[in-house]
Structures are given as structure tokens and as C-alpha cells.
Write a structure and sequence with these properties.
The protein is an alpha+beta fold and 437 residues long. It is built from eleven helices and 21 strands.
Amino acid sequence: MNVIEDIINSKKIQDYEIFLIDHTAFESIILKDRVDNNREINNFEYTLRVLSQKDNETGVGIVQGNSLNPKDIEKNIDTCIRLANTNLNTKYYFPDKSSPQKVATSDKDVINNPLKTKEDLVEELLSEIKEKKEVTPTFGRFRVHLDKISLRNSNSVDLHTLKSYFFIEFSLKAQQNGKLSEYWPFLIIKEKEQLDFSKRVEKWAKLAQDNLKAVVPQPENKAKIIFSPQVLHNALNTVISAHASGMAYHQKMSRFHIDKKAASENVSIIDNGLMEGGLATNGWDGEGTPHQRNEIIKNGIFKRRLYDQKYALLENTSSTGNGRRAKDGSIINGISNLEIKAGDMDLDEMISNISAGYFIEQFSWLMPSQITGTFGAEIRAGYSIKDGKIGHPIKLGNVSGDVFDMINNCLYITKKREYFNNCLFPHMAFANLTVSS
């Protein structure tokens, strides 16, 4: 960063920002029940942003690079300057220096010995899989990730974070009477304790086996359906992120209004960049603004809008620490970690309260419209519910609905919550969804 900053200063640039990631991943590729290949992956890249201030407008130049050759850096800076001089838009300033909270973003044992950590965890995973004689492993990956992240700007912001986390995908195959079924999950997990291979492999093996007996669900227009935490992540994140944002409010697209009903009374949703065990947990957001805990919806009432620096300036308010760094280095106004407050019942009790319905573990591709909240997705793994008990496995039917209607028709929420990517979610039961075959 010093090398880059020295060249920036030599060009007498007043408003600049350097965002840098040094990423390392230690990966094991698994074929069947053994490690086939190990590799180490390194990737270094930086993003430069330069501002051009002109009256009541600001031009923003942004360029990514991965070379520390001074000539390449200078070329990137010159490109940034040209872009900043031509991309005039609303007034914008980089955040000032602040004091972010200290939060745990890495595991010391993982940082000190990532290779041994990976080897131990892969051995544990394969040991659990080998005990499941009813399924056959086919392919898998396990990675330990280490990210060194730094942010520096011309307003004296100088921040650094070291993050560790895990990636896992594994395919388990079940076979019976000429039928073949495969369950292939993948997930990103922040803490070793969250991996819980014993429980996960047990569940994966069961889903692979149950899919052999799965049938197409019966059509229903007003179905009661339980969504797993993974399904909730896919259903809610993009829609809640979009409509709770300052961007949507400024563009008059938000469906949420402060102190107005947004969900059922039993629903409380929190954006929490400081959440223990959260994948996006950090003391600061992508712009260097301190992360915080923002209660978006409290007991069904919309309470807090999420702002990055740009939309905070446009709305004459303060950033809530919701400037998220995108892959291209730009800033997106959106959520950090999302959590839903726990309910008051166990999963078994939730199921017992539903006389007829469905329990969905996985969809093929659930991607609701950010604007309308509508969705339709094919069931990959699930169960029918009959007389308050889990019935036969289901697959291939389609579930459709509207995220806004869903959260306003929430029947039950479990006490226990699970981590999935950047979420801590319970199981939730919703009414009035449509199931088609």
C-alpha cells in the first residue's frame, strides 16, 4: 500500500482510496473416499478509487490491478484520473477516520497452521463419510481461506483485517433397485465449530437416500411450507437487502416505510456486521465506516434503513456501515450479516402444528426478483407433512410466491438457528404459498 500511495501522492491527487486483498486458499480435492490432489491458491489484487470534486458534483474513477510494478500502478492511477474527470455524478466524499469496534474475524490456530487445519478437517470429514455405508462419495472439495484486507484513504482511514473461513462441497450418491440419487451441497462457513461434520454428513446421507423414494408433490394454492435456513438465505437476502437500503428509498423503489408494518408480528430481522461467527463480520464495511447492529424489522415493524456513504450523503444522514465491496471493487449499498430472531418452538413442535404442508430443504435455483419479491423454484429435496408428521420425500414440484407476502404470513419460527454463509437463521413456516407439479 505504501508503494501505491507514494505514486498517488507524487501526482498530487487529493482524494483517493486504496482497497487491497491478499487472498490464500489451501484446497483438497477429493475423489470418492480419498484425497486426490492438494493445492495452494494465491491471489492479490487492489482497487483504486480517485475523486474529482467539481462544484456540487463528484467524479469517481475506479480501476482494479494486481501488479506492483510502478509503471503498471502509474498507468492504473492515470486511468482512474481520466475516469474521475468524465464520470461526474452526485456529491461524494470518502469517509473520515473513525474507531471501529474490535471483533473476531479469524481463528488463531487456522492462521498459524492452515495446512494442518485443513488436513485434520479433511480427515474428520472423510471418516464421517466412510461410516455411511448406505451412500457412496463421488467428488468433493474442502478449502481453508485466509484473507488479508486493507483499506486506506486520503482522510486518514488506515484499516487492516485478517479473516479465516472454510468452503466445502461434497457429493453423496445413493442407489437402490436401479434408481440413482445424488445430494451435492456446498457452503461457506466461518468457524470450525459450525462445520459439525457428524451432523452434516448424517443429514446429507439421509437426503440422498430419501430422494430415491421422492415423489412429485400434490398441487396446492394455499400451502403451508417450512423453509430451512439455507432456503431462507436464498429467498430473503437479496430482497430484504434491496428494499431496506437507502438506495431503494432514494430511488423511490422501497416497499418498506419507517414505523409501518412490513412483516408478521413474530418476525424481527437484523443486519449485524458485528455478529459473532458471521461470514461478513468485520469492524468496518467496504468504505471504512464502522459496522454496527441495525434492527431492520422489529416485531413486524420496519425500523431502520441501511445506508452506505453515497446514499447517506444524498439523504443528509449518516452511513450505517452498509457499503459492501463488490467483486469489481465498487461499493454496493446492502446488508452485511443478516439474522432473524429466534422463535419459541422446536422444529418437531413446528411440524406437529401443521396438519398438511411441506418442508423444503433445497431448491434447484431460488432467485427472487429484487424489485417485486416474486419467485418460482423447483424442489430438489423436501418432505410432505401430514397430520403433524413428516411424510414421504418430495422433489420436482415447483413452489412460487412473493417474499413480501411470505414474511407477512409467517406462522412459526424455531428457537434453534443455524449459520449459512452470512446468515444466522431459524426454520420458518409460511402460509399461502403455491405448489404446482
